[in-house]
Amino acid sequence: MIRIGNVVIPGRISLSPMAGISDSPTRRICRQFGAAFSYTEFVNTDELIHRAPKSMKLLRYESDERPITFQIFGNRLENIVQAAEIIQELKPDIIDLNMGCSTRNVSLRGAGAGLLRRPVYAGRIIEEIKKKVSVPVTAKIRIGWDSQSRNYSEVAKILEESGAAAITVHGRTKEMAYTGLADWEAIGEVKARAKIPIFGNGDIASFEEANRKLQTYGLDGVLIGRSAIGNPWIFSPISKRELSWEEIRAVLLQHARWMIDEFGEEFGLVLFRKHLVKYLSGLEFDPQWKSALLEIREWNRFEDLLLSDKRKPLTLTI
Ligand SMILES: Cc1cc2nc3c(=O)[nH]c(=O)nc-3n(C[C@H](O)[C@H](O)[C@H](O)COP(=O)(O)O)c2cc1C
């Protein structure tokens, strides 16, 4: 059993935080199939300090999601610390500092992966958050800004010395964004030197691969992002390939229902499309049926069309 600070993490494989994807319904579906803990989407600390409703809503969660990590980002120590103090009211189990976001408008202003260029400052942020909150504080990093500055060893050392309770390492540089392959040797190096739990992340495409990575690199845990979209079974030994359409459909309907509970009927279904496309991928359907399904904004029509027996998948190509 691993622990992040005093928080017991019941498993080794979890859902990676993904803005626009890893909302409460999605996290719950993944937990249901074995994801070890929950990680919110990243939330802007410049907005949290004003308790902006949109940002606070990103931190809503259900009790069956625990342990839950709130992920925050920003470039100003005072705002990050103040935001961490505010969100404690919502009783997260862990607070995580995003040091990996590669998008220009985040990283170029020194937030997200921008903090990799100022590791001492990032360390101070961790220290100062720790003074104000009672939960463990962690960080999620990339291996460097670009191929010339792969400073993951230095960053991990500073964060650990600053009191980070765990670190997740996505094995790409900021410059790589999502191209190329994650460097798992670098992740393994961080693990070999660290005394705190280290989570590895990048490109895991199956439950078996997750377990291989855990073993090969002696990691405390791994996170799965993109391959978990529309495939919550990835957190368990069950392979989506072995499931019937009826079984896939039952989970998809549950997920869609929870999206509607969270976001309302129309917006919930619109947001669900990203997931739906992935649930359906690998299954070959009548293209007209599929595009009609992806357009629907009313629950009854959505359910009726999904349950219409005439529309069985033609072939399974996963
Ligand atoms: C759409 C999308 C949104 C993401 N949002 C976040 C985020 O809010 N916080 C974060 O730390 N990482 C974020 N990431 C990065 C993922 O957590 C993960 O590190 C990355 O996708 C590599 O893992 P994977 O290959 O398993 O997807 C995001 C990735 C994607 C694809």
TrEMBL record:
Task: Quote the catalytic residue positions.
Answer: C101 (proton donor)
> Which reaction(s) does the protein catalyse, per the Swiss-Prot or TrEMBL entry?
a 5,6-dihydrouridine in tRNA + NAD(+) = a uridine in tRNA + NADH + H(+); a 5,6-dihydrouridine in tRNA + NADP(+) = a uridine in tRNA + NADPH + H(+)
Query: What class does this enzyme belong to in the EC scheme?
Result: oxidoreductase
E.C. designation(s)? 1.3.1.-
Q: Where does FMN bind?
A: P17, M18, A19, Q71, K140, H170, G225, R226
Picking any one GO molecular function of the record gives: tRNA dihydrouridine synthase activity
**All copies of domain DUS-like FMN-binding, residue ranges:** 15-301
Q: Name one Pfam family in it.
A: Dus
Q: What are the entry keywords?
A: Flavoprotein, FMN, NADP, Nucleotide-binding, Oxidoreductase, RNA-binding, tRNA processing, tRNA-binding
Tagged with keyword Acyltransferase:
no
Query: What is the stated purpose of this protein?
Result: Catalyzes the synthesis of 5,6-dihydrouridine (D), a modified base found in the D-loop of most tRNAs, via the reduction of the C5-C6 double bond in target uridines.
Q: What is this protein called?
A: tRNA-dihydrouridine synthase
Q: Which gene underlies this protein? A: dusB
